[in-house]
Amino acid sequence: MLGVLPGIIGSLQALEAIKLIVGFGESLIGRLVLFDGRRMQFRELALQKDPECPVCGEHPTVKALIDYEAFCGVGVGIQEPGAGVEISARDLQRARGLQPNLLLLDVREPREAEIASIEGAQLIPLRELPGRLAELQGYGEIVTLCHHGPRSLKAREILKGAGFANVRSLAGGIDAWAREVDPGVPRY
Hints:
Helices cover 31% and strands 16% of the residues. It starts with a helix and ends in an 8-residue tail after the last helix. Mean pLDDT is 88; it is low at 76-82. It is α/β, with parallel strands linked by helices. Strand 4, helix 4 and strand 5 (122-123) form a beta-alpha-beta unit. It has a 5-stranded parallel β-sheet. It has a two-stranded antiparallel sheet with strand order 1-2.
């Protein structure tokens, strides 16, 4: 029975698209159709605009689209040409001394941070990052880090997609930091 449901709903969606393109009939704009396949019943609900909606309400706060692919981490590994995507451990060490408004963002899991961490880094696991973006407002530059680099590149793309302008990833992650800057940081 489940196999036919996408066909039924897909046919309804196609019909709505055709009605909108051709300008014929009454569209479902402002209404929601519910289909109960077990009972073969359709119900219709009238929808009203939410005046508090952040996109379409009376005082919208969301006025532009984000880079959805970057926000979801799709396409990570395809890096922008040129410099600025990553920063070396030694360059990060110098930058931390010169830029008080630099945030070092650790996107590893808490159990990893218990093994090894860089002093002053803020821990937000990668899986929690999309929901905690507000905590990162107000920093001039953000450098993301993980164990070896792939997760921090993904975090960088999420941040760039959310509108953070100055974000780099620590090349080689905390492992590179331990090798090149602070041998006292345990390697795992």
